[in-house]
Every structure is written in C-alpha cells, then in structure tokens.
Amino acid sequence: MPKTVVKFGGSNLKCKEDIGRVVQVVKNYQQPVVIVVSAFYGVTNFLIESLEKARHDEQVAKKTTNYLFNLKKETLELHIQDNDLINSILSEIKTHLDELEKYLHGIALTGDASPALEDHVLAFGERISAVFLNGILENEGIDAKIAFPETIGLITDGEFGSASVDFVKSTNRVREALAGELVYVIPGFYGISPEGKTTLLGRGGSDYSAAAIARCIGAPSLDIWKDVNGFLSADPKIVENPVQIQKLTYNEAAELAYFGAKILHPRTVEPLTDAHIPIRIFNIYGVLDVQNPLSVVSAEKTVTKGIVKSVTYSEDFGILKLKGSGVGAKPGILAKVTSALHLAGINISSVLTSQISINIIIAKKDLSTAYAVVSAIELHVVGKVQITENIAVVAAVGNGISENYGVAARIFTALAKNGINVLMSCSGASPIVSYFLIELNDRIQAVKAIHREFFETNPV
C-alpha cells in the first residue's frame, strides 16, 4: 500500500516540545510514512539576509554556518543522550554547512550570485532540517532514511525561483526510490532541473513539493500538520470564535490560499486535484490523532447554508492603472501591456477595465517594475500611468457564491454599514469567490464586518 505523505513546516520546529510532538505524530501512524520537512522556523529568512550580506562582507559565510551549526547542535543535545549519534548527525550537518560556506564565500568574492546559485543556497535550510529530523527519529528507534530530491529524481521544469515539478520525468523515479518499508525524510522547497541544478518551488513551496511527492507515489492522502485548527471561517487573530471548516473542495482551498489564508501554499492543490488525493489538515498542538483531521480538502463539493465558507484578505496586491479616453475600447492596448509584463517576468492576477481605464492587479512587489515597463511602451491613447499600493483585497469564498443571488449584496451592505468604501469588485471570475479592493486601513474591519454578516448573525 502506498505511504501517506506527512508534511511538517517550520512552525512545527520551534522548540524542544515541538520536536517531541513531531516524533509522537510519526509513531502514531503505526506504519512507514514519507515525511517532507521545511527549514527550522526563521532559517529561510536568515539565509536570504545572509545571501544579500555576503555580496559585501566576506565574514558572513563563516558567521552564517556557525550560527546554523550551533542552532542544530543545541537542539540535538536537548533530545539525544547518545554522544556518538549526536556527533554523527553533526558531522553530516557540517558537511552540508561546509558546502554552504563555500558558496557564500564565492558570492563575497564576486559580489554577485546567479539565480541558480541563489536557489542552491536557500535550499540548505531544508537540507539540514532533514538531516536533523532523521537523526531524531533514529534516536527514537524509528527506521528512517534521508531522501534528497536530487537522489529520488524530483525533476522540475528548470525555472529558478518558482519551478514546477515535471511529473512525466519524476513519477516513476520517485515512486521507485521511496518504495522501501521504512520512513523517508525529504527536504521540501526544492527539486532538481533536468541539468541537475537546484530549483526552488516558490517561497513556501514545501507544501507544493509534498503534494508533488504524494502524487508521484499515489499516496492515500497528504497530511499537513500546522499550528492552527485547520481551515476556519476567518483568521482567529481577527474574529472571535471562527467556525471550523471540515470540508473544502480543491478550488475553495486554492482560492483561500491565493487571497491570503496561510494554511496552504496556493499551488498545493495543483498536483492532487486530478489524482483525487485528499489533503488532511491537523494541529500539532491539538490531539495527535492521525485518523481525525480537522479539515479535509478533496473533490467532494459541499454548499453551506450561508454559502460563504470563509473570508480572508491579502495585502500583497497593488493596481497598475492605465488612464485615457477610450483606452478600454482601443484594440491591442491590453495585448501590448500584458506581453511587456510577461517578458519582464511579472504575473498578472486580474484585469478590470472600463472605457477610460484599464486596471491591472499584480503583486505589490512588482508595481515599480511594472510601472517602468509600461511607461516605456508607446501607447498613444494612454494619457496617464499610475500605481496604487495602499490597498487590500478582501475575498469571500464558498461553493455556490455565483449561483445564489444576494451574496454580493450582503457583502456590500455589511461593508457600507461599517463605513467601508469598495474601490473595485469582481464576482464571476471564479464561481466560488467574490473579492473586493478596499483601502488598506479598512482590511481588518472589513473581514470582521463580512464575518459578522455570514457567521455571527445568521446560521452557517
């Protein structure tokens, strides 16, 4: 029988007690599983900062590896009494860190790093986490083995920074490599290009790599252990008593992730949808019962009485505006703009047009580049190009939103009652989501208002 793929994130690896919970979860499966692990909490950000500092400071390489070595050493000594085993694990960790130091030192000498080298450096957080966790499991008497993406054949399309797994090339190799009757520990976040280079699967891409491995081996489920109670009707930091969502479709989960919910990486469902492999969400700080997930993402469609299942927001989007008389009706304008943005590597999230304005929603981090790119194009009917950053996107997600009248009206009314102005809105682009652009400062109040309308004053 294929193994369950179990994903542990950086939030599961914060302290001694967390490691103990992870070990207990693995034991509770009572059979071999495939574990995909993220870097320790904060390590990826630390590596990003180190990579940037290394361009200007030769001392950064040694400081970085010393810090990571001592971090792992201190944590190992909290969990393992066998000094020989500790030294064995540290020796393997040091091998990886020596390689990392060499690359960082090279960056210091040249003052620059290629995209390929950046990807390779940033993957070290996951690599040493896998070595660490494998050693912890070995100390607990669990028959475990590290399986690096480069050794199991997790092949990608070769795009640095945000690669996709090539399932035609990967499936048989990964399935054969993970066929043994033991626990495998795999570093997430990266795969290998056809040329053998490290390619990251996007920031937060360990969820996606776990999903890809689950698809390759035909896993019965992808089990993701978080530090929250699964999918909820809203962020518990914003609203009191959010409702737990026990069942979601792949599309609902993907839309919630896309619009700001942090439970899953937005691409996690991609490899699993066609294969009908469910995603099961658990809380590492709850009851460690591997048979009873808090939320299940699958193909099963459910429509709640209130239609809306969850409301979320994102601060990551901005608007690139093209203004001019007749700009929305002029043939070819949008094609020129979108082609130029594509060549600049800028993804377009949405486009809303009118007769006098084209509004392109893109990642906030890309706004300045997009402005420069579009401003350089000869567009005679465009009188003005401008960017808007001080916005948030609020989204209501649920099956049936596009098929049930009055949902958008209830949202607009709830926002209006709280004095929140809607700058733009879109319903129908997806049959399961309505989203609204509002002033950034109104985002928290907007989520509260919509949640109150659908979950606190009406039955779910």
Write up what this structure looks like.
- There is one protein chain.
- The chain is α/β, with parallel strands linked by helices.
- The chain has two domains: 5-298, Carbamate kinase (3-Layer(aba) Sandwich); 311-456, VC0802-like (2-Layer Sandwich).
- It is built from 15 helices and 18 strands.
- It is globular.
Write the layout of secondary structure elements.
Blueprint: E1 5-8, H1 16-28, E2 34-37, H2 43-54, H3 60-79, H4 83-110, H5 115-122, H6 124-139, E3 144-146, H7 149-152, H8 167-177, E4 183-187, E5 190-192, E6 198-200, H9 206-217, E7 222-226, E8 247-249, H10 250-258, H11 270-273, E9 279-283, E10 295-298, E11 310-314, E12 317-323, H12 333-343, E13 348-353, E14 357-363, H13 367-375, E15 384-388, E16 391-397, H14 407-417, E17 422-430, E18 433-439, H15 443-456
Parallel strand pairs: 1-2, 1-7, 2-4, 3-4, 7-9, 8-10
Antiparallel strand pairs: 5-6, 9-10, 11-16, 12-14, 12-15, 13-14, 16-18, 17-18
Helix pairs in contact: 2-3, 2-4, 3-4, 4-6, 8-9, 14-15
